[in-house]
User: What shape does this take?
Amino acid sequence: MKDKNNFGNWILGQEVHSGNNTFNTFNPILDRPISGDYYEATPEEVNQAVDAAANQFYEFSNLSGDRRAEFLEAIAVEIEALGDNLIQTYCDETGLPAGRAKGERGRTLGQLRLFAAEARRGAWQMPSVDLSIPDRSPLPKSDIRKMMLPLGPVVVFGASNFPLAYSTAGGDTASALAVGCPVIVKSHPMHAGTSFLVASAIIKAMQDTKMPKGVFAHLNSMDYSIGQQLVKHPKVKAIGFTGSERGGRALFDLAAQRDEPIPVFAEMGSVNPVVIFPEKLELDLDQLVGELSDSIMLGTGQFCTSPGLIFGIDDDLWKSFFTQLGSALDHRATQSMIHPSLKKAYNQMKSKLTQHPDLTSLCTISEAKRPNHVAQTLASVKGVDFINNPDFQNEVFGPFAILVSCKDWEELDCAIGCLRGNLTGSIMATEDSLSKRFSLVDKLQHRVGRVIFNQVPTGVEVCASMQHGGPYPASTDSRFTAVGNDALLRWVRPVSFQNFPESLLPEALQSKNTLCLIQRIK
Ligand code: NAP
Assistant: This one.
């Protein structure tokens, strides 16, 4: 970022910093810190941000859907206006290529506009009307109407690997603002510069569309204390988190220990099992090798949908498949991780697993030479050993996958049955072969949020039918999604209004239905 070397926190529309602690971001390609000091928020600044959000919650939540939609659309325009500065900052802080940055920006803008449309449509309010029956016997029935209302101030923690789409103005922030919840973002320290720029775009949009100034705040920190203070703050009513299982679980437990426990919608890691049928290998072995090696390497494996476990029946074809997949990965150039700490975590997790006597490494690259690069790794384990050792299901965040060789279908079925929760589960099969073993789908669909036929798990479409979440540990509440139109439903709760005069009911519940919502009427 040109001409600026100090970056504060955004509270009540102002850039402020009252503390002295600063930190820098890091360029993993140049292997050196990036100039620019980010001021950590102080505990007082946390209180100011949350108080402002709580004070202006009613005003914000009472705005029309149109007004909140204008705000979200203005955020998209302001992010676009950041132009190449945003792309360059993203690339400097992550080492990811400009194409990826632009793609993620496009997705972020699309999400903002999608949630703006949802704010306008107002269907998230789900109005339900039970008309009174005064002459019902033996007791009259009252008029009872129910709708969804926003929860209150939401704290958002973004992930290191998605500086735009799952961070400052990402899906959590956009969906919470769409329903009228003020948002306080705890910026991710690995991409504080990208986050600062996006926050400045949100502030500009907030001013241009005359939103209450407390509806968005942005706080920097590089240790856990600020995030933990936010989760414990009594005026915070929900948490959106994208990150590791360890981080999500820590914040979930903290929220549960509050005097008033609050929901934590944590989207965490996943190993995304892929099951390959022999009939599919026979048809498309080369294609599967190509697709899976691309998917494992995509973004240096730093995707929550990266394929981490690949299951098959141990026959000659399977052996040939895994030799070819190992060799395809060996021939790929190593890639950089987003940050040295992620490289360190990858190497630690990987060596812990690959030292296990039941695991055989299939790749010959053992070490990456360039700074912050890591060696992609494919390992294999027998089905029976996989079943007996839950550690093989731990996410190794990076280009790492384990092939699970099952001696027969019974063992494969048992291995799928003992899977922990995941975001996705893929089945590579022919239609005919899957129809003969459909019990596998029955089993898999209860372990994942998205069942995929003949496609790799990487690539998440933002649409109404997308489910991005799954049984724990993929997420802390498998009933909700972090991606797609239904992401809004995390930030609302149902409230009934009994015996209210029509004129005093919320607009969504009035019988004249000026908002033209689909009301469930009984
Ligand atoms: P992370 O280390 O868990 O960090 C995420 C955020 O949580 C950071 O802001 C971090 O704070 C904060 N945090 C972590 N532990 C905390 C604690 N104990 N107390 C307070 N705050 C805490 O995860 P990451 O490395 O950024 O992201 C990679 C992970 O995200 C991978 O596991 C990946 O699979 C997952 N992911 C999931 C999805 C999904 O949709 N399911 C999408 C993308 C990524 P600091 O910044 O201060 O460290």
The chain has two domains: 20-268+478-509, 274-453. The chain has a mean pLDDT of 96.
